[in-house]
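Quick review question:
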């Protein structure tokens, strides 16, 4: 496995990969099984597998956890090697953003809901870094987790709107045994919070089950999901929303594919999770 730390070397390395299919997994590092599952699928489906580790300052708000975001480069290197990664790209901030950007990107409708509303500017930072990484790495296929379903919808918009010749593959959320979605941030959950956090997925499932039982009112489902979280956890609900997917438009009734999404603030960490299902409640776990 090659470890590449400069933008220039990454471009040079990519130029050597002629006539090869390139799979790409963008990450912020501190790998867990969610990241590894993306790498495994990408490994199976491409000649070359490139993984990036970059905690992108542009996607963190002023009061967010950029400084405390967990990092462990040595462990990431070891795990990437074990997954058969060909190139691990770990650029420096100064190399990715050597000067203030003279052209900036703004995400529209798909960023005005869910995490985009609570984290203004977050998705602008995501599409900016991905545009740079897509140009540097020129992947044929990009692998992302449905755990961050709004991010998948935003990337889908970026790729479609700007004609990136890339196939986007969204893979199922990997969970702890108790159902909690794996996340690099879970290390900051207190033990009682870990027990409570399992209710996030249980509440989502409850909402989806209501749809299988023919409940069609978005407002009624949201109400029950909110009640469940409030009763079962001490977390503060940031949002519970039910929207069309992947367009992320507001809906009253469930008549198409939708996302039911939750964000809850615990003491030191904000957790998100979501479930995507069609009009009769059938769960959609992957997108490709
Ligand atoms: P991050 O390092 O948090 O930016 O995540 C890098 C990629 O891993 C993103 O595409 C995430 O959606 C994906 N990911 C994060 N957590 C999970 C999980 N529990 N299951 C599957 N994919 C995940």
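Suggested answer, residue by residue:
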């Amino acid at each position: 496995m090659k470890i590449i730390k400069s933008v220039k070397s990454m471009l040079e390395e990519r130029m050597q990969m002629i006539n090869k299919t390139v799979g790409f997994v963008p990450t912020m590092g501190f790998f867990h099984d969610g990241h590894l599952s993306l790498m495994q699928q990408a490994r199976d489906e491409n000649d070359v597998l490139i993984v990036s580790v970059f905690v992108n300052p542009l996607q963190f708000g002023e009061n967010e956890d950029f400084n405390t975001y967990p990092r462990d480069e040595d462990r990431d290197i070891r795990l990437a090697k074990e997954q058969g990664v060909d190139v691990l790209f770990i650029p420096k901030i100064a190399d990715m953003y050597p000067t203030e950007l003279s052209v900036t990107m703004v995400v529209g409708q798909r960023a005005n809901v869910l995490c985009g509303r609570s984290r203004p500017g977050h998705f602008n930072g995501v599409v900016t870094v991905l545009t740079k990484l897509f140009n540097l790495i020129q992947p044929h296929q990009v692998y992302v987790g449905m755990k961050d379903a709004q991010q998948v919808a935003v990337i889908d918009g970026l790729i479609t709107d700007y004609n990136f010749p890339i196939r986007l593959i969204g893979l199922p959320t990997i969970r702890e045994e108790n159902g909690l979605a794996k996340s690099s941030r879970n290390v900051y959950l207190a033990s009682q919070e870990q027990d409570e956090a399992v209710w996030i997925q249980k509440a989502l499932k409850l909402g989806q089950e209501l749809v299988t039982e023919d409940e069609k009112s978005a407002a009624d489902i949201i109400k029950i999901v909110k009640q469940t979280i409030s009763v079962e956890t001490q977390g503060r609900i940031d949002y519970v929303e039910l929207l069309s997917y992947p367009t992320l438009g507001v809906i009253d009734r469930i008549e198409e594919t939708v996302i039911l999404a939750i964000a809850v603030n615990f003491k030191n960490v904000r957790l998100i999770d979501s479930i995507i299902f069609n009009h009769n409640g059938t769960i959609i776990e992957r997108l490709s």
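Why it works: The two ends are 27 Å apart (CA to CA). Residues 27-28, 34-35, 37-38, 144-145, 147-148, 173-174, 181-184 surround adenosine monophosphate (CB under 6 Å).
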